[in-house]
Structure formats: C-alpha cells, structure tokens
Amino acid sequence: MANVLTLAPLQQAEALEVRQVTEWHEAFSGFETANQYRVSSPHGEIFHVAEESEGFLAVLSRLFLQASRPFTLHISDGTQIVATATRPWRFYFHEIEVEVGGRRLGSVRRRFSILRRRFDVLDAEGRAVLELVGPLLKPWTFEAKRDGADAGVITKQWSGLGKELLTDADDFGVRFAMDLPDDHKMLLLCAVFLIDFLYFEKKSSRS
To answer: Whole-prediction pTM value?
Structure first.
C-alpha cells in the first residue's frame, strides 16, 4: 500500500478538478512548453503537477514528438514531491507508471481496441484493479469500472472559447466511487495526464 500520509489529500475526496496551466505564449511562439496542472478538491488546491523540463532531450522531445513524447511528471503537495508519473515512449500500447514515496504504486496501460478507448489500471504487482472505457458516442468521457460496477469517471470539461481555440491547455473533472481506495484514486488522477496527451493535446494541429 502507498504511504497513507502521502495520499492524505485524497482520503476525503470524492471529486477532483484538474486544470492545465495556460501557456498563452505557446499559441504565438509555436513552441511546446512543459505541461503543468493544478489539482483541486472541493476544499481547495491539493496538488501541483509539473512536467520535468530540464535537459536537451526533454527539449527535443517536446519540439519533435510533441504530444507523443515520453515524460515524467512531478506531483507536489506544495511542500514536497509526493508522487511521480512517468510515460515511456510507446507506439501504441501507451502507459503511465506511478510511484508514490519512492515505491511503485501501479500503472495505467492502453489496451487494444477497435472502436472504444480502453485502458487497464494496474496495481504494483501488475494486477488489473480497474478498467477505463471511453464510450464511442462520448468522446470527452472515460468511465472507470471495477468488476463491472461504476468506480468513477473522468470527463474533459469545456475550458472556454479562448483557451480551447488558442492553447492546448485542457481541464478535467474526476469523480470517484465513495469506497475507492486512495491508491486507486491516485492512479485515476494520473490516468488524466495520459488521456490528455493521447486525445486532447492539439498543438500539432495548430502548428
């Protein structure tokens, strides 16, 4: 199990709002910058998430691979980094691997599917604990299932006309089942970042 104190901000959270920090100069410079997000519960901001941006390879990957790039995200509670989420490069079976307190928490991995968007949410031992499914007729929605029952939902939210048209910054809502363990909540939160890169980063279409 993950460190209880590390995941304390998620203990009472039944819903989260994930807002990507708007980088307005991207719209005019044409250069992809490192992503940042602010994560809030109904009681206020609980995490700041920042993509690792230093190093020549990181710059090159943002420039040439854009939304397909590998990345590492650092999730901070304002005083310390409590988790990291790493996306290795994959051609199709995209994945994000999550560590909390220096220990592997699990991962979110894309499954092969013809019509629907499907992901497995795996624990530290690689066992599937949740399934994420994007319904065919709901392109902004990803439903979390646990043994066939509803366990939560991730929804892309309308960010406003200017933000939607001029930037690749996106906002999401996450809702959890009341009895969902905190480590599964963290995995679903990190699934948001993978989903954002796979389906909603639109920078390349505006270049």
So the answer is: 0.88
